[in-house]
Design goal:
Number of strands: 0
Order of helices and strands: HHHHHHHHHHH
Radius of gyration: 24 Å
Helix content: over 70%
Oligomer: single chain
Largest sheet: none
């Protein structure tokens, strides 16, 4: 008797098959949650955005191209767009109660697990804060490569840009960060002060 075995499906297959979708979800949910925890410091929001990322797979799984990068890199591109949309939405809201209205309540165990992930990503959030002064395009490349550990190729695919463009932006971002984090030069001592010190030492 021939037994049909189901191979591991990518985003396009997962979007069409509930069983493959569950497998795809389990394979990537931890990485997506960590990605969002580096950008959001509220466990409820992390949970909601994680769910949105995988719901988006159903609509956009067909756009994934294996030749452009890994599944994880593609998912990070989806997650980044969703996190950016959430930041814009939150910025437009002036009342906190509007932000939490209708939000799914989490069990205490769920909150505890997400808080652990948030704590684990403190360093990643600090790194992203350090990048905040860069132009948007350069910051995006640095975020994906430095904080999220994507390759240059995967970062370019996640952002929908050419690799050469990503390489140029990465170079500019690193240069800007080196300048911004360089220790300040010691203040110059006026020549008159130097001359006075010299005369005193001679006398």
């Amino acid at each position: 008797m021939n037994i049909r075995t189901r191979s591991r499906g990518g985003p396009a297959e997962a979007a069409r098959d509930p069983e493959l979708f569950e497998e795809f979800y389990r394979r990537h949910v931890d990485a997506v949650t960590r990605f969002l925890a580096r950008r959001v410091d509220d466990p409820h929001t992390v949970a909601d955005l994680t769910a949105e990322v995988f719901l988006a797979v159903i609509d956009s799984g067909h756009t994934y191209r294996p030749g452009l990068g890994s599944e994880r890199g593609w998912l990070y591109g989806v997650a980044r767009n969703i996190a950016s949309a959430e930041r814009r939405r939150a910025a437009r809201e002036s009342v906190l109660s509007d932000r939490i209205a209708g939000r799914r309540l989490l069990e205490s165990d769920d909150i505890a697990r997400l808080e652990e992930k948030l704590a684990a990503e403190n360093e990643g959030r600090r790194a992203l804060t350090a990048l905040a002064g860069l132009p948007e395009g350069e910051r995006a490349v640095m975020e994906l490569i430095v904080a999220d550990q994507l390759t240059l190729r995967e970062a370019a695919a996640a952002l929908g840009i050419r690799q050469v463009t990503a390489r140029v932006r990465l170079h500019r971002a690193r240069t800007a960060l080196r300048v911004a984090t360089a220790p300040p030069a010691p203040p110059e001592v006026p020549e008159t002060v130097n001359r006075t010190v010299s005369l005193r030492s001679e006398s």
